[in-house]
Known about the structure:
Blueprint: H1 2-6, H2 18-26, H3 32-36, E1 42-45, E2 63-77, E3 84-91, E4 94-100, E5 115-125, E6 128-138, E7 149-152, H4 161-175, H5 185-190, H6 196-204, H7 209-240, H8 251-259, H9 266-280, E8 286-291, H10 297-310, E9 314-318, H11 322-336, E10 343-346, H12 352-364, E11 369-372, E12 386-391, H13 399-406, E13 413-418, H14 424-431, E14 435-439, E15 450-455, H15 459-471, E16 475-479, H16 494-505, E17 511-514, H17 520-531, E18 537-540, E19 553-559, H18 566-573, E20 584-589, H19 595-606, H20 610-621, H21 646-662, H22 674-677, H23 682-689
Parallel strand pairs: 4-6, 8-13, 8-14, 9-11, 9-12, 10-11, 12-13, 15-20, 16-18, 16-19, 17-18, 19-20
Antiparallel strand pairs: 1-7, 2-3, 2-5, 3-4, 5-6
Helix pairs in contact: 4-6, 6-7, 7-21, 8-10, 9-10, 19-20
Amino acid sequence: MFLKEIGQPVRILPGVGPVAAGDFAALQIHTVSDLLYHFPRGYEDRIGTEPFYPDILKPDAIRRINTVVTVVDHVFFGWGKNKTLKVRVADDTGEAFLVCFGRNFLAATLVPGAKVYLHGKFSFRYGELQSSAFEFEPYSEEPKLFRRILPIYPLSGNLTQALVRKAVQKGIEEFGRYIEDELPEELRIRYGLLPKHEALQEIHNPRDWLRMEQAVRTLKYEELFYLQITIGRRSNMRKTFSRNQRTLPDTLLKQFIRRLPFELTRDQTTVLQEIQEDLSSSRSMLRLLQGDVGCGKTLVAFMTALLCIESGTQVAFMAPTELLARQHAENASRLLSPLGVRIAYLTSSIDREGRTQLLKSLKKGEVDMCIGTHALFARDVRFNSLGFVIVDEQQRFGVLQRMAVMEKGSVPDLLMMTATPIPRTMALTLFGDIEVSTIKTMPKGRKRVHTHLAAQGNEGKVYERVRRELEKGHQAYFVYPLIQQSEKLDLKDTETMYQEISNAIFPAFTSGLIHSKIDEADKEQTMARFVDGTIQILVATSVVEVGVDVPNATCMIIEHADRFGLSALHQLRGRVGRGADQSYAFLIYSASLTDDAKERLKIMKENSDGFAIAEEDLKLRGPGDIIGTRQSGYFRLRIAEIISDFELLKTAKEDAFAILKKDPGLLLPEHCVIRSILLNVPPLFDNILEGG
């Protein structure tokens, strides 16, 4: 069968030895089918000719050349071991030099009089047109790397473009006969899509740009179509499952509300009622709760959890980071434990002995609410009676990761939360029959965070303003894009700036450092000291983007703010302004801003509404690259992109749901490669296909 043949290890291909197989594995490429779905990240146009034309090149400009040249002669510069070959070449428009650093052996190939295809980046240096980054091939009527569109692949380890191209082509040649069409022929003909084997051939080795675009559209549509088939089947299965309508006891909920030192906002009350109705209905809940940072979503989640806990079922609360999961666990313990709720905290960093005991208690039903990270969907995690799953920052989890937790109960209710608002039409398209609740009103007493923009070089003024806040007894975050110094990027980093802030800029105040490479126990200790005010300045990466709640922090300083996306900037700004005092966000940007970066900073300056910012973010991201990007959030797709391909996604949904209406039990064909690679988590995908 198809999967059996094309599912063979990638190492069976010529030229893929153990080392290369290991490098492919780092890219999650284990089989031939994985390799054929390892799509190019871009292309190099080597069809057209781009000759030298040295007279029109500006002194500081870099130009990509693609031409046929004749080798004129050799020139050497330097002495002894540092002697370097320069090859003078010429085409019909002029001449240039190829500087062969470490490649003096090319003298034996690029001999005077030789005619070759040449491709490279050229610029004027030392009064002449030259390049040290070039590729060439002896002239022939059927070149391998020229007169064609050349795919450029993501690489890992010692993989080269040449090796990946050869392996992919061998995969298509050897296994092309096993590649069967997976889309219904009616749809393929309706939209002018290519047969599957042609689409794979053309995306990896396109004859022209039109065929490449047709291949991309074919593979995107196929991926989105079967994604919608999966969502549609899941939706149909939910509709067939029913339970008796129930009246959930609310004694704990009423006690909880009475203990609150404040009143719930209007939106919190509305959303609480919506979720109560869902939990009491004859169908399991599938609801998305969206709201701006600091609006009180977590409080609503805790309150709804009490309804399920009092009815005798367990609750799983999943967060994307240990930092956020621990904060949720601490808040739950503080708010819910006095009511008799038994809280557990589970992450991958818990020691074996503690984990073993926790899992035993969870299985026996001695834990009411288990709060954790990805560790919650590990195979050995078993609940006694899981009835309610809460997923915070749900966009940071793949759909199958959410489903893995759901499978630990008997069709439990699901509440997903996000501070990145999603338009309802998009939510319905992405999640099928999901319901959407929204919290817009903010808790009383919250003040708008004042946002200031500052160019690099003016940091001194920002630091002075922050100093005044620190002297008042308040706290500050300093966020940087890098953990350590980079030779490739001229950016400030957390480790260097932590030393600078501690010893030179703010020596009179205590500072702490947090980033992803720091030991989890040290991170927890640093965060605890920041929360209790022992540390006044927290230097961090965007690891503090979600969940950190320190009401006394009034300053958020983001250096190289132009390197962050709108959503990240808004989330980071949301870490301050959580108390009664006026708070400030300072976005420090570099001089060389792109147009998109300028627009992002302008939006942040003018807007504090997360919903408005989310809409602007969608506009800014626009159509995206033709190849698209992998999602780390809603879905992890190989080629389609949820934002830029949204119209195609809607079409695919209409087609998929129309087919499911005629045949509700439709399964993917057994030979379907999408079955094993669509969402890149094969063991769980089959469960969903079978209606799990």
